[in-house]
Amino acid sequence: MDFLAIDVETANADYSSICQIGIAEFRNGHIIDKWSTLINPEAYFDQFNSSIHGIEEEDVVDALTFDQIYNELSERITGKIVVHHMPFDRIAISRACVEYNLDLLQPRWLDSAKIVRRTWEQFAYKGYGLAKITKFLEIEFAVSGKLQCTKIGK
Question: To which CATH superfamily is domain 3-111 assigned?
Answer without folding.
Answer: Ribonuclease H-like superfamily/Ribonuclease H (3.30.420.10)
